[in-house]
Amino acid sequence: MTLNKDLLDILVCPKCKGSLLLQPQEDGLVCPACKVVYPVKDEIPIMLVDQAVPEKEWTGSKL
């Protein structure tokens, strides 16, 4: 699975508008400021605040 680099360059956290970091497994995007992970399913980032998982609870994509 590889997310499009151009897409990653323009995505921001929907809550704080901060930058996002791709998880090494490419199954989530981390917002360091909010300390949440937005899951990635079938190479599609789920950028909904209510779908974000607290970073300390993240165990990989559950979708």
3D architecture notes:
The protein is 10% helix and 25% strand. It has 63 residues and is mostly beta strands. It has one domain (5-57): N-terminal domain of TfIIb, CATH 2.20.25.10. The protein is globular. It starts with a helix and ends in a 9-residue tail after the last strand. The relative contact order is 0.23. The model has no long low-confidence stretch (mean pLDDT 91).
Spatial gap, N to C terminus: 15 Å
Give the class-level CATH name.
Answer: Mainly Beta
Which stretches are poorly predicted, pLDDT < 50 over at least 5 residues?
none
Give the count of structural domains: 1
CATH topology: N-terminal domain of TfIIb
Share in helix: under 10%
Helix and strand composition category: mainly beta
Number of separate strands:
5
- Just name the CATH architecture: Single Sheet
Query: Total helix count?
Result: 1
Let me know the average pLDDT.
91
The fraction of residues assigned to DSSP E strands is 25-35%
Oligomer: single chain
**Helix-strand pattern, N to C?**
HEEEEE
Keywords:
mainly beta, 5-stranded antiparallel β-sheet, 1 helix
How would you briefly describe this protein structure?
By secondary structure, the protein is mainly β. The protein has one domain (5-57): N-terminal domain of TfIIb, CATH 2.20.25.10. The chain has one helix at 5-10; strands at residues 21-22, 28-31, 36-41, 44-45, 53-54.
Task: Explain the layout of strands and helices.
Layout: H1 5-10, E1 21-22, E2 28-31, E3 36-41, E4 44-45, E5 53-54
Antiparallel strand pairs: 1-2, 2-3, 3-4, 3-5
